[in-house]
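Late entry, written up from scratch paper. The run itself happened at the end of the previous shift, but nothing got recorded in the book at the time, so transcribing now.
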Amino acid sequence: SHRQNRVALSFDFPFYGHYLRQIIVATGGFIYMGDVTHRMLTATQYIAPLMANFDPSFSLNSTVRYTDNGNLFVVQWDKVRLKDREAEGPFTFQTALHKNGTIVFNYREIPLLVENINSTEHPVKVGLSDAFMAFLPSQLSDAKQWTIYEYHRVEIDTTKIVNRSAFEFTPLPTCLQHTSCELCLTSNLTTGCGWCNTLQRCSDGIDRHRQEWLDYNCPEEAKGTCEDYNPVLPEGSMGPFNHSSPGPPNHTGITENTAIIAGVVAALVLLVALTLLAVYYINTHPTVAPPFYLMQRRTNNYWPSMKFRNQGCHSSYAEVELGGHEKEGFIEAEQCC
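Output as recorded:
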């Protein structure tokens, strides 16, 4: 049956411009690259040398193994057989993830043409895919739901997958790699990039940060220029003050400002003193109600968990919810195929 194992990489692997440290290796001939694990791992955000309904439990010789040397991560599906078609023979293939983002598919034994593999019980895919998650109004209520959008996919011509064949994917530059407004808007490596000064991020708006890009009004900010965020002051000007009326200094204004500043400082000193007294009281009286209340607030996590439901696309992998979140609220998420 379907199994998956979460693996921590020893290096940051760039996938569509996003640097990932954790991935999920699945027995079904693919690696899941998503941030949020959900019931339908096979739908989007994958690296699939040969996604199919493999059953490693058929034989002790069937294994899925991986290795990581700090610069290269390799997963090998070794002598795995298709469920209910074990007599067709074993498949042996691997995926290599290089630290620079290059991805290589290697095929040693392919006993069956890929186009002849049945996709009824499990999708059959070869290639790459990435997606972003965004809020959409629910058709059933006023609440919003997380929806997954696949924004890019690379598919291989499966007729070319034969014994001793290999495919190499070289990553293209992305807007996300630019760390300044100037590089974002002037680089010859990328096109369509915009700079969001609020997030200090370069993007074309179509990546995993799509929802945040919209929430912070980045589409409007991206229409501006770098000069909008770094205004050039007139020569000889020291700041935004108006010095058009020269004359003797206003001592009355200085005295009033000094009194205001002194009042603010006194208030801050009083607030700090009260805080220190409260902390001292809590530490010396640990059984009274206030300390327990503070401890409860510190330890509780009020982020909602996300719960996805299957819309009947393909056979599903075991659901894994976000770790470390209290189950006070659930967001039902539609799963697109």
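Residues 45 and 130 are 4 Å apart (CA to CA).
(Scratch paper discarded after transcription.)
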